UniProtKB/TrEMBL annotation:
Residues 96-144, 469-535 form the Rhamnogalacturonase A/B/Epimerase-like pectate lyase domain. The keyword Repeat does not apply. GO terms for molecular function: lyase activity. Gene3D superfamilies: Single-stranded right-handed beta-helix, Pectin lyase-like. Keywords: Lyase, Signal. Pfam families: Pect-lyase_RHGA_epim (PF12708). Residues 1-18 form the signal peptide. It comes from Novipirellula herctigrandis. This is Pectate lyase superfamily protein.
């Protein structure tokens, strides 16, 4: 009893002091710098200060602080970068007997503020109110208030299938009973920094989802108890690095399993939702957005989703750009439609679409039903439907058995906007059609692995695995302080063990870290466990051949894993070092040459600054330009990549690529590919490649997204983002290729724009959509472009006999 009273007193203290946090940590001089730099009034500054994290100074400015909080009772976990929610001072009950809401909330806030992960040991945690996972803001050295990508809320549960972690919303919890007033059980949200206009009138608590970074909900289930008819299990409208993974939501007694979705470098994987009125609804949620507007970031990608017995609809979609759905399984007892697609306003003609791939929809009731009700164009490939009357209006199905939809492109032309006429058509080998394209067959049953082929296994490596070795423990004793050379200790651990765990830290290397075919290199969170280098570079700075920080074995049947790991490139070094190397960075992040069942999951491969954004440039320090690709996939390189994102403003040569795939035969799959803000010829390039699938693209730039040359069997499902190619160019450039498929092209642009607009820190201006094409094809020197008002729902170039 005394312990519980002490815990409650501590939690009350944390909550009471939270509002004064910013004022306590920022000196009066710093506060004035922030006010002036951001053009705030004194009142606005006072409102924002509690939500601004103090700048981290070292070992990487504006990065992560490596101090271990002494007040955490479970110090062994704290040293890894974890906050044990069941240990003092929080003591959340995992037996489901006592309300743990306040304890969990305090632990989340503490972990966020100290740049740690909240760990939920296996058990049931009773909650009675919204668990708010709010990302705050931080400041740069120059005083600019900015997103707090290194201060997210990361919630991780037990990875053991027999010891799941679950949040149970108590029966008849206050505020959750009204289905007309939805309330969220677990809500990932954030603060704004005045949006793009620097307007602080709405106050800090109005969310700004495009800077909602690195928020994670993993290996935790949500159960909605009885009497909560207005409850939503999870909401995460977020961007780069944000993801829900390995989650089951029991919404039987609730309204919606999941509301909104991540995109823009965020995605969701391996989620099951049982019951509820709606499984997944991508509409907005006030105050962030209107209830009848979109509630996602561009191109939400959702993989391995199971939706069971919703009473109204499995999916209601009003996404920004297309929703890319891969490996879904929908079971329903009602007559449908199980999928509803809603169009956006005429100014956003390409929002709200769907790409459904390798999926199963089963009607288990007596009457069968309708699969889809569509106001927007959609695309299906390799979708199996059982006992459905129709797929969509005008397309009959098989009400007594299976129908195999090999491919379906269903174009619906957008409404005109003012004098603008937009089109979503089907292009097959240069022939345009506004009619439905369908290949289907009755009788075929789905293969057993249709979902599993797109996911990792239940035995996926984790820091919780008993075989995982900690590189900071004896005999390796890696420092992880960003200064000490950890090359030999990391390499020794990799040479001697299969599962190698890097706790929170910066692991400086001066030579390439070489992985074995079976290596599983894992971190505690993608922003917290980082491999990086800094001058002096040792072997990385020698010779004429550019070296990677990390390199895999060149093996076709490998089982290599990178999981929740950062690989950082910093462009700053002493001036004499930069000059000696002719100004070009002598290394790059990752050489990936392994295939088979290899996986890259939740990586953070980033271009960043060692000294952040100071008020004055550090004396004696200069910057490299980027020339080598940040990631090079070659040789036997393949496998599955989940939630890859990279951006950052820097100087590049025209040859730079965020991702270069060359001379590979695959198979290689990206489950959400987000690459942006490079001023080079293209963000990414596939060269002399085969068998590459990209499920969901989101990007921003003023050059091009992808160049594909001399390649075969390349499939890109879904494109979105606020990007404009160079005048006269295109988002995609295909040169001498065979068997290319592009679906759900969904440009996001300002249709009112009539002239170029200069972009801060960018070499090229943003162009009006009338000045470029969605794609261009060059075969034997002959160039073909699509019209600039056309975003095809399906575009394919095949070999003559394909």
């Amino acid at each position: 009893m005394l312990k519980r009273l002490a815990t409650l007193f501590y939690l009350a203290t944390v909550i009471c002091h939270a509002a004064a946090w910013g004022q306590e940590l920022l000196s009066p001089e710093t506060q004035e710098l922030v006010r002036r730099r951001n053009n705030m009034t004194k009142q606005q500054l006072a409102e924002y200060l509690p939500y601004i994290h103090r700048r981290v100074e070292e070992p990487v400015a504006e990065g992560i602080c490596l101090d271990v909080p002494a007040e955490l009772a479970n110090q062994s976990m704290a040293e890894l970068g974890l906050v044990d929610v069941t240990a003092a001072p929080f003591r959340a009950d995992r037996l489901g007997q006592h309300d743990a809401t306040e304890a969990i909330q305090a632990a989340i806030n503490f972990a966020r503020d100290h740049q740690m992960v909240v760990f939920f040991p296996g058990g049931t945690y009773l909650i009675s109110d919204t668990i708010e996972c709010r990302q705050k803001l931080t400041m740069r050295g120059n005083g600019r208030v900015t997103s707090a990508a290194n201060f997210p809320c990361v919630l991780v549960g037990s990875s053991a299938p027999e010891q799941r972690s679950a949040l149970l919303l108590a029966p008849r919890s206050p505020g959750f009973s009204d289905p007309e007033q939805l309330k969220i059980a677990v809500h990932f949200t954030n603060c704004n920094y005045g949006f793009d206009k620097g307007d602080y009138q709405q106050g800090p608590l109005h969310p700004q989802a495009n800077i909602n970074y690195n928020q994670v909900f993993s290996d935790i289930d949500i159960v909605i108890g009885e009497g909560n008819a207005g409850a939503v299990g999870l909401r995460m409208q977020a961007a780069e690095g944000s993801s829900a993974q390995n989650v089951t939501i029991d919404a039987t007694h609730g309204h919606t399993g999941m509301l909104g979705a991540a995109g823009s470098g965020g995605s969701h994987h391996n989620i099951t939702i049982r019951g509820g009125r709606i499984g997944i609804d991508t509409h907005g949620f006030p105050p962030e957005s209107r209830v009848d507007g979109s509630g996602t970031q561009p191109t939400p990608t959702m993989v391995g989703i199971t939706l069971i017995n919703q009473t109204e609809a499995a999916l209601v979609n009003k996404s920004r750009g297309p929703l890319v759905a891969v490996g879904w399984r929908i079971l329903t007892k009602n007559s449908g439609p199980v999928i509803r697609l809603e169009r956006d306003y005429p100014a956003n003609p390409y929002n709200g679409g769907l790409a459904l791939i390798d999926s199963v929809i089963q009607f288990t009731g007596e009457l069968g039903g309708s699969v889809c009700e569509a106001e927007k164009s959609f695309y299906m490939r390799n979708v199996y439907v059982e006992q459905a009357r129709n797929v969509v209006q005008g397309i009959a199905a098989n009400p007594t058995g299976w129908m195999h939809i090999k491919e379906l492109a269903y174009p619906i032309q957008p409404p005109n906007f003012k004098h603008h006429h937009f089109q979503e058509s089907v292009y097959i080998n240069g022939e345009r059609s506004s009619l439905t394209y369908l290949e289907a067959q009755s009788g075929n049953t789905p293969p057993q692995d249709l979902t599993a082929r797109h996911l990792w296994s239940d035995s996926f490596a984790s820091f919780q695995n008993a075989k995982a070795i900690n590189v900071k423990s004896p005999p390796y004793n890696a420092a992880g302080d960003g200064v000490t050379d950890d090359t030999s200790t990391l390499q020794k651990a990799i040479d001697e063990h299969e599962i190698v765990f890097l706790p929170k830290g910066y692991y400086r290397v001066t030579d390439t870290i070489r992985l074995r075919p079976s290596t599983k290199l894992i971190g505690v969170a993608q922003h917290l466990s980082n491999i990086m280098t800094r001058a002096p570079y040792g072997e990385l700075g020698k010779g004429d051949v550019l070296k990677p920080l990390v390199e895999t074995a060149n093996t076709a049947d490998a089982d290599t894993t990178l999981f929740r790991l950062g690989i950082l490139l910093t462009d700053e070094a002493p001036t004499e070092t930069v000059e000696r190397l002719d100004g070009t960075m002598p290394f790059y992040a990752l050489s990936w040459r392994c295939g088979g069942s290899s996986i890259v999951r939740s990586p953070h491969i980033a271009r960043t600054h060692l000294y952040g954004y100071p008020r004055r440039q550090k004396e004696g320090i200069d910057k490299f330009r980027y020339s080598a690709p940040a990631v090079r996939i070659s040789g036997h390189g393949g496998g599955k990549w989940y939630n890859f994102f990279i951006h950052g403003l820097a100087e590049e040569t025209d040859d730079y690529r965020h991702v270069l795939v060359e001379n590979t035969q695959g198979p290689l799959a990206f489950y959400h590919l987000h690459a942006q803000h490079a001023d080079s010829y293209a963000q990414c390039e596939f060269r002399n490649c085969a068998n590459v699938n990209v499920y969901g693209v989101k990007t921003e730039y003023q050059t091009r997204f992808l160049k594909v040359q001399d390649s075969n069997n390349i499939n890109i499902f879904g494109h979105g983002g606020n990007a404009t190619p160079l005048r006269g160019s295109a988002h995609y450039v295909f040169v001498d290729c065979q068997n290319i498929t592009l679906t759900n092209m969904s440009d996001q642009f300002n249709a009112r724009q009539t002239s170029p607009i200069s972009m801060a820190y960018r070499r090229y201006p943003a162009q009006p959509y009338t000045s470029y094409s969605p794609l261009m094809v060059i075969n034997d020197g002959q160039e073909i472009r699509l019209p600039n008002n056309e975003d095809p729902i399906l575009w394919r170039q095949s070999t003559p006999n394909d």
